[in-house]
Amino acid sequence: MADRYLDDLTVGETWTGQPFTLTEAEILDFARLYDPQPMHVDLELAAGGRFGGIIASGWHVASRVMREYVDTAPFGATPMLGVRIDELCWLKPVRPGDALTVRREIVEATRSRSRSDRGTIRTFTAVCNQHGETVLTFFNLIQMPAHAGVTL
Asked: Which Gene3D superfamilies has this protein been placed in (predicted)?
């Protein structure tokens, strides 16, 4: 993607990434390191549990969504700084083999009052599985330059 700045963006603009799949091995590897709860790491216990099988850690899904954002580079090489995540919601379990698609929308674009060379955008992110079910949502506040030549 070409480099894009605050001045180039429009509220209501959307983009959708390419689907990515979480494998059972990837789910187990992540969970063993970062979220070793039975529903994420123990195939036998998970099979008899409330989800009927192993599911991905929500943190794993969120980290893969971040990776998809970096890979997609919707603003090119424009320097940006994540400020916060709001209303992170895990709505449905993600299972091995699920193909996830990320859709983002710019819901606000605001120039800084104290530093007119930069501002923030607020995006809404929704992640859907291959069945069209929304599995994760959140709002993200990102600081970015208003135009080329600004460093954050």
From this structure: Hotdog Thioesterase
